[in-house]
Structure prediction request, 345 residues.
Amino acid sequence: MVGIRDVARKANVSPTTVSRVLNEDKTINVADQTRDRIFAVAASLNYDINKRKYVKKRLPSIGVISTISKASEEQDSYYKELRAGLEEEASRLHIGMNRIYNLSDNPTEWKDLDQLGAIIVVGTVTKQSISDLLKQNKHLVVVDNPDIQQEVDMVYADLERMTNSVLELFLENGHQRIAYIGGYQVDMDEFGGKTITENEKRSRAYLHFMRDHHLESHITHYLGEWTEESGERLASELLADNKTNLPTAILIGSDPIALGVYKALEKQELQIGKDIVLVSFDNIEAISTLSPGLTSVAISAKAIGKSAVRLAVERIDHLREEPIIVTYPTRLIIRESFIPQTKQT
Prediction:
């Protein structure tokens, strides 16, 4: 049986372009010559154009549900980049993306989501809420929430693997008294309700690593909010609680928290990179002013956003039915706060 990919291959265009041209999508911008070639190839292969017409019933539009408030998004470089990736790819593919729900700002019941072509969920939404969403729209892409068990498309950075890699580097460089400072996991539902747990990816990986390497006696684990203020408070508590046996290395869940950790360590006149080494996550622009420089894990937030839109479009155009999981690698950017003797490959 001739499929849409056969037409795309012979016409030398993408399956998405074939689908939208054959369904007379007015929002797609292709040359007349390309349009004519697609119809000619479809005819030569005896491809049944009419069997694709039902796609037109579904609006070529993507909804976004985010657990991040608009204000927080503006202050958080990671989520700002992720949103930019969503918008840029939607614009490139001529897909509308006007229905945006920020659960932290205006909790509301999700309605009429079946009118959308697909939905992208950014952040950790409760499993029950994912189930409720699937009842309205099967075309669901979940971003940054790998713990979801439902049959949905997922895109996320491989943070647990990188957490283990950094901890291995600490060990290889002689550090056993390793602490972790990070944030709680916050799962949200459609009404803005929050469930707060300690089961956050980096925190979970740290605890597993320490136990797997028989370092239980050195576990020093502090969680709070994902803010600079919380980072300073948690680091101050860590230093006060461990005066006689300070950790020699601290893994920090995010750069905003790390900004506060720097302040706390400097107040105690501890030399970062010598007395205590630090590694954080995000590699945001704000850390460029820190001295000594902060070793941080770079995450491709914009690429993650773009990938989520592409997965959504594949669902809208019925190019596949099986869910896909896309994991993005991360990179350790070495600076003075921790320069390992054994660098990561």
Remarks:
- The mean pLDDT is 89.
- DSSP finds eleven helices and 14 strands in the chain.
- Residues 77-92 form the longest helix (16 residues).
